[in-house]
Write a structure and sequence with these properties.
The structure is a single chain. The longest helix has 21 residues. By secondary structure, this protein is mainly alpha-helical. The protein has a domain of about 30 residues.
Length: about 80
């Protein structure tokens, strides 16, 4: 199987085994003269970092849950 798609060499000329290029595949659902920009640009969009909540917020949330469980056990034995 020397083809990049793992096709059996005996079926190499079968028209059903046609794989489009990336440009053909991703461009097939987009009109030629689109008025609106893509809402999710394919390849090469904004690569800015995603802002996550701070580590301290997660630590405080876990500590609060543990404290709530311990208080529940202590107050209602």
């Amino acid at each position: 199987m020397s083809s990049p798609h793992g096709i059996d060499p005996r079926a190499q000329n079968d028209p059903r085994n046609r794989y489009p290029t990336d440009e053909e595949f991703y461009g097939s659902d987009r009109p030629d003269h689109a008025v609106l920009p893509e809402d999710r640009p394919r390849g090469g969009g904004d690569t800015g970092q995603v802002k996550h909540r701070g580590t301290w917020a997660t630590v405080a949330l876990v500590a609060g849950i543990i404290l709530l469980i311990l208080l529940g056990i202590a107050l209602f034995p």
